[in-house]
Amino acid sequence: MQQLLSELKSSGNAVVALGGGALSQPENLKAIETSGFPKIFLDGPVEVLFQRCSSQDLARPLLKDFNSFRDLYLSRRSHYSSAAARVETGRKSVPDICGEIRSLLQTSTLRTKENG
Q: How large is the average pLDDT for residues 7-29?
């Protein structure tokens, strides 16, 4: 992860989208924290997140049922909350979410908060 983030940083602007468990691994969390990239937590009601994950045609070994999903989400939430910003995705469209993220990235507050 550290090498990937270093390569991306030297290539200019980049967006790195990580899976839900990435921040729960200490080595990944450290790499992300030292990368200088701003962290934005894309959140939503757990019911909506479950529906999104369930409807994807992807192998998700930890996606069993709603109660298990909710418990996993809640156990990871403390890692997510270390992000500099949180975007409520709820039932927003992808373009709306992207616009909100773009606005956050353009604010000096977010850059300052993440980069020292």
A: 80
> Range of 27's domain?
2-115
Detail the DSSP E strand segments found in the chain.
Answer: 40-43, 85-88
Cβ pair 9, 62 in contact under 8 A: no
Q: Give the whole-angstrom CA distance, residue 106 versus residue 7.
A: 22
Nearest alpha carbon to residue 98 among 7, 17, 6: 17
Other beta carbons within 10 angstroms of residue 76's beta carbon come to 15
Instruction: Encode burial over 16-47: b for 16+ CB neighbours within 10 A, e otherwise.
Output: eeeebebbeeeebbebbeebebbbbbbbbebe
pLDDT, tens digit (0-9, with 9 covering 90-100), for 53-69: 888 888 777 788 899 99
Residue 82 near residue 53, CB atoms below 8 Å: no
* Cβ 21 vs Cβ 60: under 8 Å: no
- The count of structural domains within the chain is 1
The predicted model scores a pTM of: 0.76
Span 79-96, mean pLDDT? 89
